[in-house]
Every structure is written in structure tokens, then in C-alpha cells.
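Morning F.,

Quick status update on the modeling queue. The single chain you submitted on Monday has been processed. Sequence for confirmation:
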Amino acid sequence: MPSAVLKTKLGQRVLDVGGAAAGDRTGAFVPISDIEPMRATFGAFSGNFVPAANATDVLQLIGSATKLIRLKAIYISGTATAAANIIVNIIQRSALNTGGTPVAITPGQHDANDDAAAATLQYFTANPTGLGAGKTIRGGRLNLAPAANGAIDRLLFDWSWHNDKSPLLLTAAQSICVNLGGAAVPAGGSLDISCEWTEEALEAVL
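C-alpha cells below.
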């Protein structure tokens, strides 16, 4: 019977079935399936921020000229003075927003050995004056509880759990935005948003 020794080959975990000496004439390496990807992964959180009145885009993840950005997850919760609910849209834009008051959010690396993030994450305290062209790719309704109760509802947007493709940002002119559709924000409304994405060299898509 061939031996089976766990090794690393070209950065991938493989089983060395032993080669000819162990009875395997091909000397093949068998890849090992691992649900944890090797791509550089980043996460960021912005809590308790107040959207602009009649909010449009409240958060945007902007792509990079040097890295392929894969959006993996967005989690949203929030509170208001009295119980209320809002519609949330996830919009993939092929042109960047203009104007408004964007505030940078500093992401953290899941692995300190990875490069610094190439993508840019921002939230808006004043609406963009111009919204980039785009299409809604996901959406849902979020219940906002009274602030004294804390957030009791969370809206989850996860990708690549069912062999679906994550939303991709291929250039620095593309973005993915959390959008409230221009509806009035409930009195005392504030949001908490967590975002996760991965980055890799653009050559990976060729």
C-alpha cells in the first residue's frame, strides 16, 4: 500500500502517496481539500454611525488597480428612538460616487503577514451628490429596535456559500455600496456595519 504523508507543494497542502518506492508508479501528489482559503482576508466594522437624512449610499467598498477584490460578507444591525424598519440594498457600481462626506474605515488583516489592504472602505455622513451607475444585487428589510433594547435584528449578506461567485471589484473605478434608497431614516437611527473581503493579484483572473 502506498504511504500517505502530508506535505506542502507550491503552497498547497497535498498528500504524497509515496512515489515508486511505496508502490505508486505515478509519484502523484493528491491535493487536500481545505475550506479555509489562502487569499489575504480583511475585515472592518463601523458602529453606531448616523446616516444622512433620506440616505442613499451609506457605505462603499472601492476596488483597486492592483488587486482583485472579492466581497465575502456584509452584516448590518441598528437602532432607532422607536421601533422601525428600513429597506437595505446592495448595489454594485461600475463608476464611483462623487461628493458627499465619506469617512475612511481602517480594515484589519486576518493574517498579520499579509499585505495592507488595497481596497478602500468608507461610510457617508452626508449623501453623495452623484451616484455611480450600478445595479442592485441583493437586498432585504432590517428591523431597528429602540436604542434602550440594543440591536435585536441583523441583516446578513453572505456570498460563495453555495458555489456562487462573490461580487468582484476589478478596478479602482468600481465599488459595492450599501444603499437605503433615499428613504427617510427613522428618528434616532444609527447603523452598525461589518464588512469582510479578500484580495489577490489581478493576474489570478486571467
